[in-house]
Amino acid sequence: MEKFALNIPEGGQGSIFPRRDRVITRLLRRTAIALLLCFGLYVCVNRFAVTEGRLPSYLTPEEALYNGHTKASTTKIPLEAHIMSKCPDARDCLQQLIVPAMEQISDKVEFQLSMIASVSNQSSEVICKHGPSECIGDMLLLCAANLPFPPQPKGTAASDSALVETGDQQRTPTIRSLGFANCLVKSYSNIPSRELVEGCALEHGIDFDALNQCASQQDDDVDDDYSPSHRADKPISGIALLRESALHSAALSVKTSCTVRVDEKVWCVRDGGVWKDCVGDGEGSQVSVLVNEVKTLWEQRN
């Protein structure tokens, strides 16, 4: 608050001020009181906003919507897409079903993008169907979804950039990571071109340097526990994220890119350029059908 200095003649008695000075003094005093009241109101409003779960200042309303900043008691519906980054069916799946649906139900789902790959139980080796470049693409997608948000300041130690899924540290908003994935997979044949990756990162607000660091991070300890509850003291490793994601898909017996799962059940499969095994006699491939199903499940549980 601005401080006002009054010039008091020697003797220091306010009563010796001319009338004009006394009027100015009263105005200054009232101004100071008004500023204090405004400041107090500002503090109260912001404290109320925090306690009421208002949006963090670094999130736009759209990002908050995609990232699930809703009431803490809300039960979200699991929505998952299992893909291979260099697969044309993954491109179609994201563009024709996932992204359009998420534009309508993002606040009602817990979205996850999972990878399909072969993982060795004896080593850290991961084999991707479309070659090593696909493994890089898979890691980039997983890294983008798991980077700390807001981004860590430049020069932050790797150990300080670890993924933390609880507490104050949040992951990349889904609107950004899904947008990045859609951008990358749309040009899947060019993965992992630096120009493509950097362009998609810039377009969707992903820190390219952090993305590159994550994808380049080596993690060869097969016995290392990289589950979410044990990540706080680890730098984010793209290969570890890929191993974990591929094992998750394998445990669910998901082998086809793209397989969409809703509420832990297979909803629809995109394979060979066509939709297969979709619920509702094939109607599950329609955006409106998926949206209505999620809304129905959400209303039943909330």
TrEMBL record:
<dbReference type="GO" id="GO:0016671">
    <property type="term" value="F:oxidoreductase activity, acting on a sulfur group of donors, disulfide as acceptor"/>
</dbReference>
<comment type="similarity">
    <text>Belongs to the GILT family.</text>
</comment>
<keyword id="KW-0472">Membrane</keyword>
<keyword id="KW-0325">Glycoprotein</keyword>
<keyword id="KW-0812">Transmembrane</keyword>
<keyword id="KW-0964">Secreted</keyword>
<dbReference type="InterPro" id="IPR004911">
    <property type="entry name" value="Interferon-induced_GILT"/>
</dbReference>
<protein>
    <recommendedName>
        <fullName>Gamma interferon inducible lysosomal thiol reductase GILT</fullName>
    </recommendedName>
</protein>
<feature type="transmembrane region" description="Helical">
    <location>
        <begin position="27"/>
        <end position="49"/>
    </location>
</feature>
<dbReference type="GO" id="GO:0005576">
    <property type="term" value="C:extracellular region"/>
</dbReference>
<keyword id="KW-0732">Signal</keyword>
<dbReference type="Pfam" id="PF03227">
    <property type="entry name" value="GILT"/>
</dbReference>
<keyword id="KW-1133">Transmembrane helix</keyword>
